Amino acid sequence: MNDTKSVKDFIDSLQSKGQYTFTCDEIESKLDKSSQAIRSALRRLKDKDRVVSPRKGFYVIIPLEYRSIGSLPASWFVHELMEYLKQPYYVSLLSAAEIYGAAHQRPQIFQVMTDHPTRPVDSGNVRIEFHVNRRIEIVPVRQLSTQSGYLTVSTPEATAVDLVRYYRSSGGLDNVVTVMTELAESIDPEALAATASLVEDPVAQRLGYLLDFCGQEQLTVPLHRLVSARPSRRTPLRPDLEYNDTERDERWNVLLNYEIESDL
Q1: 57's torsion region: left (phi>0), alpha (psi -120 to 50) or beta?
Q2: Tell me: the pLDDT tens digits for 142-173?
C-alpha cells in the first residue's frame, strides 16, 4: 500500500467515526511508516484539500461539503485545537452571541478568549482570533455539544460583560447595543449581576447604562444594586474619548461622551 493511500485510509477511518482532527504524533503512532513518509503524504493530501493544518502538527479533516471554504467551521475543531495547544479557552464576544442567536450580522472571524496572547489561526477561509482574559478561570461558561464533540462558550451573561469590556473587538458600542438587544432574552438578571461582580466597576456601570439604553431595564435591577453598593466613580462611556464637561447619566454615573446609534 502506498504511503498516501495508507494515510488517506487512516483519515477516512477517523471521519467515519465522527472524528475530524488528529495530530502528527497520533498518526505516526498508528501507522507503520516513517515520519518523513507520513508528512509527505499529508502534504499531498493538503494540496488536494483533504486536510488543513491550522497549527504545526495539528490537522483538520475536510469533508467534501466544506472543500469550498478549505476547512471545517471553527466550532467543529476549536476545542481540540485548544487542547492541543494546552491553553484554556472559551468562545466569546460576537461568536458567542451568534451561538445564542444574537449575532445580527454573521461574524467574519471566530472569536476565542484565552489566558495569554496567541497569534490568529487561519484554516482555509476560516480565521480564529484570540483575545486575552488573565482571569479566564473565573468566567462562567457552558459546554455545548457540536457535530464533532464539545465547545466551551461564555454564558449569555458573561458574553454581555465581555461585549462591553472588549467593545472595540465587538464592532464598537453601536454594534454592542444592537447585539445586546437580541442577547437580552437569554440573560438572567441575577446571573448578570453575579458575573459583573467579577470585573472592574467601570465595565459594570457601562453595562448597566447600555442595557437601559436598549430598553432592558428589567435586567438591570440586581446589577444596579451591585453598583450602588460600591463607591463608584464617574466613568466615561467611551474611555478613549474626551469626557470633560460631558452630560452624565445619574443612575450609573456614566459620562455620555459618545452618541450611540443602534442598527435596530
Answers
A1: left
A2: 999 988 889 999 999 999 999 999 999 999 99
Which domains, ranges and CATH numbers included, belong to the chain? 3-66 (1.10.10), 74-255 (no CATH)
123-143 b/e with 16+ CB inside 10 Å = b?
A: bbebbbbbbebeebeebbbbe
In this structure, the chain runs to a length of 264
Helices (H), the chain: 3-16, 24-30, 35-47, 78-85, 93-99, 156-165, 172-183, 189-196, 201-213, 221-228
Residue 68 DSSP class: G
Say if residues 22 and 84 touch (Cβ distance below 8 Å). Answer: no
> What does the DSSP 8-state code read for residue 21?
E
pLDDT digits (tens, 9 = 90+) for 187-213: 999 999 999 999 999 999 999 999 999
